[in-house]
Amino acid sequence: MKIDLRRLTLAAFMLSTSATCSVFATAQSFVGDSEADYYGAQGGIVLDAANNESPVKTVAAVDEDEAWAIVAAKDTAVRQVAASVYIGDDVAPASGVSSHSDFGYANSQYGASISAGQSLRYESSPCGGSCGGSCNSGCDAGRGRIGAAVCKDDPTVWMKAEFLLWFPQERNTPPLGVRNAQPLVPALTLSPTATPFGDSFGGDLVPGFRGDIGRYFADGDFGIGGRVWVLGDDEDDLNFGGSGLGQSLGVPFFNTNPDPLFFGENAVFIGFNDGAPQNEGNVAVRSTLSIVAAEIYGRALLSKSKNHRFEMLGGYSHFNISDDLNINIQTTNTAALQTVFNDSFSTRNEFHGGQIGSEISVSRGRWTASSLTKVHLGNMAQRINVQGNTAQGVLPAVPAVVAGQGLFARGEVLDLNGFKRDVFAFAPEMNLKVGYQFRDHVNLHVGYTFVYWNDIALAGDQMDRSVFVDTANFNASNTTRHVEARTGGYFVQGIDLGATITF
User: Fold this and answer.
1) I need a surface site. Which of 106, 154, 347, 377 has the fewest CB within 10 A?
2) What is the pTM (predicted TM-score) of this model?
3) CATH 2.60.40 for the 157-494 domain, yes or no
4) pLDDT tens digits, one per residue of 103-150
5) Domain boundaries in the chain?
């Protein structure tokens, strides 16, 4: 009998495929822009349940007509389970299965016979399958076809590293400098052309780092993570001085001394020349802000599909915000009398509390976008320290310390030294990201972050330009006034550049 080798080869190929791992492997296709996963039942060779026949012969033992009879036999064929395919965010059955793909003969290793036409539910592949160990541990068993479809996308561990380019809010102070044209005096209100400056610090670009690491449990339904971010010191300086040539310079303040000779708007002359040298000196101001944050939080999955994931977040938050302001003033008059003022204001704000929020992420092909919003609620421990000293003497001798008070850190302002207070505070936070899946487990992203604290103490806010100064006795001070600690809101914002690794 003449045998068509092409047809016999086709039959042999179909029978051999049914006994190998390729029958169980997941078939993949694309629907539109999305990858669609098809899951079929386990195949193999079975006994004919109706006739209790023996397993079919091998191809090598049959001729052409028998080979095709084996393939077409309705009483021995087991229909493969209908495939499922993702269309957008929905899971829908495939429109049909070709009759040529319906062949399936159970291998004896899978146990009892399966009746013709019986549907099989995909459990696992002896080859490992695309879901891997997570499906075998119960992901598919708990979620059915939806679980099988998305299980392979569930990360177990996430690690994020971000380079921060943030802009802290400016920090305000009373004006620490005043300029005027030579030979006019450098004092506010005493001359209409006097101009103040040096009343804000910071607000420029500051680099930082943020790291986030955690792990999912229960097939991605719950996760625990930790996050730390550190903002580099926001340092700002103000330096000026001279001999009064070209312009007059001073440090303005309002003197509360009732003596008519001193009362009212006044200034420490730094550089003044009214036709002859009167004062020469310099001023150095340094402002430094630092922020450190740490969090431990949990994630709970609320909803999920092929293209989105929505989670609730909750946990513990800690912030430490420090602000320091140091002022050094030196001035020397024509009699070689040098006066030196040193003022130091520092604040510490330590927050301990909880956080609650949510994060949603969506994807389209290799592009991803996410939005994180949460609020931190808890106790803000505020601490304030104020110190000052004044030295005066005739050069070239070293000026002796004659007072434990500076120019601004004096009198009733010194009552703030050692101040402590605990207040309830809240800090809303928002983070937006757009990323690209650069590799299977690596996502590169750019984002924007905004964080606001409603109640913190800053160093410049504790200064009071209304001070009692007696140049004949720097230890003298007015005790009738009362100065309170000042607090207010503060924010940071900026750009995030980073990478996320999941595995």
Assistant:
1) 377
2) 0.71
3) no
4) 333 333 333 333 444 433 333 333 333 333 334 444 444 444 334 333
5) 5-130, 157-494
